[in-house]
Design brief:
Length: 266
């Protein structure tokens, strides 16, 4: 079984517990993430996990599940607006309970997958490890939205190595997605894991490098923090440009939060 499934399971349980303790009024509070409310965040994760579960069931099931989204896009609806429309009649607690059931089913089905399988998604098919890592990354990143709203620090684990690795793997995508030339040199990355271990990627370099806490690197590549609000040491023009626009998730180019927008929260 892939370790990423355990990471996803732990992160989902943590976020579900955090939200379950909230009042109904809390669900209408806007998070620092583009003013999405707690309801928006949980509904979005639930919808994404429904698509993921459909993908595991097969290409035909995924294509059928995606049809309403594509129809909404033709009507010029954004993802948040479509999600609100999709779950319009759902009470808050019903959304949480439905997500919990869907999430449990997703984990169960994921554990039965052949690690070498390919799964349909929006864009190219994905390998199982990348597919589960993407679900973990999104759950972790949106979990930070809730932590930031509540002003609660979070406890990191070495599970975040999967997110850091995704950040490294999407180096070229970050530039291509913006129509920018892809640098020929990929910066050396040296990060301190929550356990104190040292993680490194790419060839050693004194001229192009990123160093610091793995947790801060993960927040930057998931666009939960502006690089200026971290203690990451960034050396070189390529590394500097990358960290200013890093994006480890699919979709059109997104803009990181401005400096100071989410500073002081961990």
């Amino acid at each position: 079984m892939l370790v990423e499934i355990d990471a996803l399971a732990a992160e989902g349980r943590h976020l579900q517990g955090l939200v379950a303790a909230m009042t109904d009024a809390d669900w209408d509070r806007a998070t620092p993430f583009k003013q999405w409310t707690v309801w928006d965040v949980i509904a979005h994760l639930h919808l994404s996990d429904q698509w993921a579960l459909a993908s595991i069931e097969g290409r035909a099931a995924f294509s059928k599940a995606a049809v309403p989204l594509f129809a909404a896009m033709q009507r010029k609806l954004g993802l948040r607006e479509y999600t609100r429309e999709h779950f319009a009649a759902w009470p808050r607690r019903a959304i949480l309970e439905s997500w919990q059931a869907c999430f449990a089913s997703l984990l169960d089905k994921a554990r039965q997958l052949d690690p070498d399988a390919r799964l349909a998604w929006f864009g190219p098919d994905m390998g199982v490890r990348s597919f589960i890592t993407a679900r973990y990354m999104e759950t972790w990143a949106h979990g930070q939205d809730i932590h930031d709203l509540l002003g609660q620090p979070r406890v990191y684990s070495d599970d975040i190595r999967a997110i850091a690795t995704l950040g490294i793997k999407t180096f070229r995508f970050t530039f291509r997605n913006r129509g920018l030339p892809v640098p020929t040199v990929e910066p050396h990355v040296r990060l301190i894991a929550p356990s104190g271990a040292i993680w490194t990627w790419n060839e050693p370099s004194d001229s192009e490098r990123v160093e610091g806490l793995a947790s801060e690197f993960c927040h930057v590549v998931t666009q939960g923090r502006n690089i200026a609000d971290t203690a990451l040491a960034v050396t070189g023009p390529v590394a500097t440009q990358w960290m200013a626009i890093a994006q480890c998730f699919a979709g059109p180019p997104e803009t990181p939060p401005p400096p100071g927008a989410r500073i002081g929260r961990t």
